[in-house]
Design a protein that fits this description.
Layout: H1 6-40, H2 48-59, H3 62-82, H4 87-108, H5 115-136
Helix pairs in contact: 1-3, 1-4, 4-5
């Protein structure tokens, strides 16, 4: 098992990118489902059966289900990556990349975005990821 080398970091960044992209895509799919549901609403049947029907209807929307399945696959890859990376590095790097890529992909999908705060936040995230990666490297005294 590796000790959090470059390969482990690459896996974490890849998982974060997939999570970010699928978060934005699932939001689009959920909005589509909400729109369809609002057009079909005849009566509210709440309770366990009504909730199960709504979940089934959501899972039948491929624009939600495919990104959801890809997101779950990335979760499995994350747990595999945890086997070869320290959790103190894996969690912050993956979550930071997820945050930044969710903002990026949401903007690419046409969601209204305030560019300046997104760029500032993404820059701070990148700085934080760099600090996490740099602090995990063994430092040799000069």
């Amino acid at each position: 098992m590796g000790g959090g080398g470059g390969e482990g970091i690459e896996k974490m960044v890849a998982v974060g990118l997939v999570w970010g992209a699928t978060n934005a895509l699932m939001r689009k799919g959920a909005l589509l489902w909400e729109h369809r549901q609002s057009q079909l609403r005849r009566s509210h049947h709440r309770g366990l059966l009504g909730t199960a029907r709504e979940w089934a209807a959501l899972l039948l929307v491929w624009q939600y289900t495919l990104p959801f399945l890809l997101n779950l696959s990335a979760s499995a890859a994350f747990f595999v990556a945890l086997g070869s990376s320290p959790i103190s590095l894996a969690v912050p790097v993956t979550n930071a990349v997820t945050f930044a890529s969710t903002a990026l992909f949401a903007a690419l999908l046409g969601e209204p975005t305030r560019l300046s705060p997104v760029l500032l936040g993404t820059s701070l995230v990148a700085l934080g990821v760099w600090l996490c990666i740099d602090s995990s490297k063994p430092h040799v005294p000069s």
